[in-house]
Amino acid sequence: MNFGKTIATMRKNAGMSQRDVATKLNIARATYAGLEIGRREPNLSVIKCLSEIYQISPDRLINGDVDTTKEVISPHIFNKMEVDIKPREVSPELKPDKLREVLLYVLGKVGAKPNVGETVLYKILYFIDFDYYEKYGQSITGLSYVRNHYGPTPTKSFMEVVKGMEKANELEVVETKFFNNVQKKYLPTKDADLHELSANELDHINEELVRLSAKTATELSELSHKDTPWRVAKQGKLIDYRFVFYRTDLTAVTDPDDEL
Questions:
Q1: What sign does the CA torsion over 80, 72, 126, 44 have?
Q2: Which of 10, 11, 6 is nearest to 22 (CA)?
Q3: What is the reported pTM?
Q4: How far apart are the C-alpha atoms of 33 and 20, rounded to whole Å?
Q5: 3-class DSSP string for the chain
Q6: Tens-place pLDDT, residues 160-219
Q7: Residue boundaries of the structural domains of the chain
Q8: What is the pLDDT of residues 20-78, one digit of tens each?
Q9: Please, what is the Cα angle at 167 between 176 and 76, to 5 degrees?
Q10: CA dist list (Å): 201 to 48, 197, 221
Q11: Cα distance between residue 49 and residue 58, in whole Å
Q12: What is the CA angle 75-240-147, rounded to 5?
């Protein structure tokens, strides 16, 4: 697949118009359209911006080495009577209601910070879950994450929960200008139900927010690249929680002699 067809397919899969992408690139729609039909050659700045939009490396974007299969994302339907099943230690399972409350709590604490856009949020959630797994053998939200060029990214289950929260008027997703880029921000419209979270979980989340929430997207991506679970995962594949037990001092949150 050539470059024009690749970016056209990725744009459609992301549900964006040519004008949407052109705005993110800070170019005219007609100029962007020329890229898709092959009348214009992309410069390095455009390639870099597109790789950030689609969270893949510039090399893979240029070579067409991307997954252009469209995933159908449906809003998660929350059920208050749903039983909260503890995740298995080997493979944590998503807990949508708990993820909702973690999102509301985290965003209520740090979501308004200028640096906290989608990329920063992804990395904060990753470290919240994987650091808690290292300490206690469980993930708080049960989210699965895949290895992407810019670090861990949650699977489509995350967006299903977000869509469900939007539908329930619990969350707004907006795009704002952040320096020269367009930043996607998640803004809560209600408070978290703290009964969903244990004292241990709240303490852990608060510690992570103090440690991570002031960092930039670049800093958090670089930190995640030093983390053993991300390093051993294959590109585009799920990151295995169990590799937290092989972390180095760069990212480990427990001492070697600590017990779960």
A1: negative
A2: 11
A3: 0.70
A4: 11
A5: CCHHHHHHHHHHHCCCCHHHHHHHHCCCHHHHHHHHCCCCCCCHHHHHHHHHHHCCCHHHHHHCCCCCCCCCCCCCCCCCCCCCCCCCCCCCCCCHHHHHHHHHHHHHHHCCCCCCCHHHHHHHHHHHHHHHHHHHCCCCCCCCEEEECCEEEECHHHHHHHHHHHHCCCEEEEEEEECCEEEEEEEECCCCCHHHCCHHHHHHHHHHHHHHCCCCHHHHHHHHHCCHHHHHCCCCCECCHHHHHHCCCCCCCCCCCCCC
A6: 999 999 999 999 999 877 666 778 899 999 999 888 899 999 999 999 999 999 999 999
A7: 3-63, 96-246
A8: 888 888 888 888 888 888 888 888 888 888 888 888 888 887 887 766 566 666 677 66
A9: 110
A10: 37, 6, 24
A11: 9
A12: 65
In this structure, how many other beta carbons lie within 10 angstroms of the beta carbon of residue 142?
A: 21
Higher pLDDT, 45 or 260: 45
pLDDT for 207 equals: 96
Q: How confident is the model at residue 82 (pLDDT cuts 50, 70, 90)?
A: very low
26 vs 35, 36, 65, CA distance in Å?
14, 16, 25
Poorest-confidence range of 25-39, 98-112, 232-246? Answer: 25-39
User: What's the rounded mean pLDDT across residues 81-91?
Assistant: 48
Whether residue 223 has pLDDT greater than 50: yes
Alpha carbons 148 and 163: distance in angstroms, whole number: 22
Which residues lie closer than 8 Å to 2 by C-beta, 6 or more apart?
38, 64
As a whole number of angstroms, the distance between CA 4 and CA 256 comes to: 50
- Domain 3-63: which topology? 434 Repressor (Amino-terminal Domain) (1.10.260)
